[in-house]
Amino acid sequence: MDDAIAVRDLVVDRGGRRVLDGISCRVPRGAVTGLLGPSGSGKTTFMRAVVGVQLVSGGTVTVLGQPAGTPALRHRVGYLTQAPSVYADLTVRENARYFAALYGRGRVEADRAISDVGLAEAAGQLVGTLSGGQRSRASLACALVGEPELVILDEPTVGQDPVLRADLWARFHAMAAAGTTLLVSSHVMDEAARCDQLLLIRQGRLIADDSPAAIRAAAGVDDLDEAFLRLIRAGETAATSTDATAARETA
Amino acid sequence: MNPRILAATTGRILRQLRHDRRTIALLVVVPAVLLTLVYFMYADQPTPPGQPTTFDRIALVMLGIFPFVIMFLVTSIAMLRERTSGTLERLLTTPLGKLDLLFGYGIAFGLAAAVQAAVAAAVAYWIFDLETAGSIGLVLGIAVLDAVLGVALGLLCSAFARTEFQAVQFLPVVVVPQLLLCGLFVARDQMAGWLQALSDAFPLSYAIEALQEVGAHAEPTGRMWRDVAVVFGAVVLALVLAAATLRRRSG
């Protein structure tokens, strides 16, 4: 089966700075792929490129077999921005129903999306009166309400209560089991272990692209945080020794 | 454009307005209060024989100016909020078309303006005995068209504002010159040539002239229809330019 997302040599410059520097990777269908990396590493820019709202300087991004940003993909891709982007002066239910209508869905789907993110009791409340965590879940409901084939979630679990976080991850896996592809970003390493597949980016470069088990095995440690640290160090040493070799050869 | 999405968007904007009771109260009450002020300002002014009273002349023009100014302001702030809250970027990743959004604003605020104009006209005609040769229906129709002109210019101008402070500054830049030169203060044919040229370039001049035609003639005149067509053309032009400012991809 072909991949949900195929990225080749993606380069993005923002404000004169290279934010993504030649990323190539694939995201398999029907799985939860984690996009991990520290704040400012280019996660959001990568997701924007996949959704097709980011101007790119080079490379290709293919989503569900079509170039990213193709109009037909807007029906098939759901995007959750990092900052909750819902209408503060509407209730949770009104927000969900509006986004449902954009995807040709009705009230039933809207109510289901609200209860899936654990907001059923706050459905009649204005989004502006919700807590930060509730507000981002309202935004999440609006990203899921269209039942897209590919869901891009930018830090969906930040600020959520641990029980809710576990519920949301269970929900993501249930969606993946039903055939939905999820790309979920996080800067919390303990969430990496919950993913089927991991992409680690740092300073605009892809450092790892594998399953959590394979990454642990490659680094020779059980702790993913430690494994990433070793991969980063190994990458830096390799780069330095290549530079040194190159310098010796020129000399 | 998609009728279902357009209807959902119009409904969403009206729902946002409905949650803001104070804005609704201000929209409905303020024009009536201002008309009352104007009535008493000119109550003791003599009227030359055979001429409409000063109140009739000014009140008729004000019925067109209120919806234009107020809807310009309301729209530029509403659209700026869409941009700054991230909802605009999110909407542009959904199946929503740019024109669905722009026409949604035009229809929603046009309906709000129709209510506002009806209340203001009721006060002017029934309490203060405003007299026009032409029908009240035409006056209301032109008032709503003026509101839609305000919406269209507001949608366009919001693209050039980064903050609410800037958006509000577009009122003196875009609206006040049109008010000064529309023929309310000095008849258009008595102004210097270059001012007349400016006045000819401003759409509000045609909107006001159309109202004055209704005030002076029992039947709709050709000039009135031409003026209405010019205003309508300005609305379409502003909406097309506003659509061009909505970019799905950004840097």
Automatic annotation (TrEMBL), chain A:
Entry keyword annotation includes Transit peptide: no
CDD domains: ABC_DR_subfamily_A
InterPro entries reported for this sequence: AAA+_ATPase, ABC_transporter-like_ATP-bd, ABC_transporter-like_CS, P-loop_NTPase
Keywords associated with the record: ATP-binding, Nucleotide-binding
GO terms for MF: ATP binding
Domain ABC transporter, first and last residues per copy: 5-228
Annotated signal peptide: none
Protein name, as recorded: ABC transporter ATP-binding protein
UniProtKB/TrEMBL annotation, chain B:
Principal subcellular localisation of the protein: membrane
Annotated ranges, domain ABC transmembrane type-2: 22-249
Bilayer topology annotation: Multi-pass membrane protein
Superkingdom, taxonomy of origin: Bacteria
Sequence intervals crossing the membrane: 24-43, 58-80, 101-128, 134-156, 168-187, 228-246
Subcellular location: Cell membrane
Signal peptide: none
InterPro entries hit by this protein: ABC-2_transporter_component, ABC2_TM, ABC2_TM_bact-type, ABC_2_transport, ABC_transpt_DrrB/DrrC
Keyword entries, A-Z: Antibiotic resistance, Cell membrane, Membrane, Transmembrane, Transmembrane helix, Transport
One Pfam short name: ABC2_membrane
PROSITE patterns assigned: ABC_TM2
NCBIfam families recorded: Mtu_efflux
Family: Belongs to the ABC-2 integral membrane protein family.
Name of the protein described by the UniProt record: Transport permease protein
Source organism: Micromonospora trifolii
